[in-house]
Amino acid sequence: MKDPVELLDELKARIDPERVPGHVAIIMDGNGRWAKQHGEHRIVGHANGVRSVREALTGAREIGVKHLTLYAFSTENWNRPESEVNALMDLLVKTVVDELAELHANSVRLKAIGDLESLPDTCRDTLKDASRRTAGNDRITLTLALSYSARWELTEMARRIAVKAKAGELDPASIDESTVSANLCTAGTPDPELLIRTSGELRISNFLLWQIAYAELWFTPVLWPDFRKEHLFNAVLDYQSRERRFGKTSEQIVPR
């Protein structure tokens, strides 16, 4: 019987390196349910989810993904109990500090998107420092979506464009899709080609609504703290089995 490492290597070997999605986004869901199943406090679920972040990042790097975006904390999550929110912010700071050397060693660039001004000072300053320190790394970009929601982002985008138009810096008649994309948090980053959601929930939850217009969606019942490389590899294999037509016919994609 083959050991888990052999099985994982075989799974990875089935991935076509020429068709790996350049950008994978993940809605990390299920920490609270995982904690409840294990008779633990919710924050224990979040803490165990850190290993899954490492697994997803390492797996993405190994197969050649260039951008990995993780939905870490939504604007709606501020409505959770204050004790949980505070513990999450402390966990974020500790994790970024603890992982910084490893990120550097593997040429990982760290970025953050969202309403970062709403984060506690220590959290915001830690993220800014880590982003600055890793800015020159180019193997893979890890983006954390924090205090983020797509509706907030789209509202901010509309406000930016309106201000530019009012100032005479932008002709309203010239506004097109590229104008919108250039005024989003993700400006300069290619749109996700694969969106993964854990925990069995079948919804997008206000995440990257503009950017995932043509993303392939992959849902798994696995709770986030149990997510491992094998799940990422299976998601990518499923992605590679799909026909991405972007409105064209199959014959146009693969001429007969």
Looking across the biggest beta sheet, what order are the strands in? Answer: 3-4-2-1-5-6
**Which term fits the overall shape?**
globular
- Specify the number of helices: 9
* Alpha-carbon Rg, integer: 19 Å
Mean pLDDT: 95
Low-confidence stretches: none
Give the proportion of residues in helices.
40-55%
Main sheet attributes: strand count, strand direction, barrel closure = 6 strands, parallel
Elements, N to C (H/E):
HEHHEHEHEHHEEHH
Report the end-to-end length measured between terminal Cα atoms.
Answer: 43 Å
Oligomer: single chain
Structural class: alpha/beta
Instruction: Report the count of strand segments.
Output: 6
Beta-strand content: 5-15%
Set down the secondary structure blueprint.
Layout: H1 4-13, E1 23-27, H2 31-37, H3 42-63, E2 67-74, H4 82-105, E3 108-113, H5 121-133, E4 140-148, H6 150-166, H7 177-182, E5 194-197, E6 216-219, H8 229-240, H9 250-253
Parallel strand pairs: 1-2, 1-5, 2-4, 3-4, 5-6
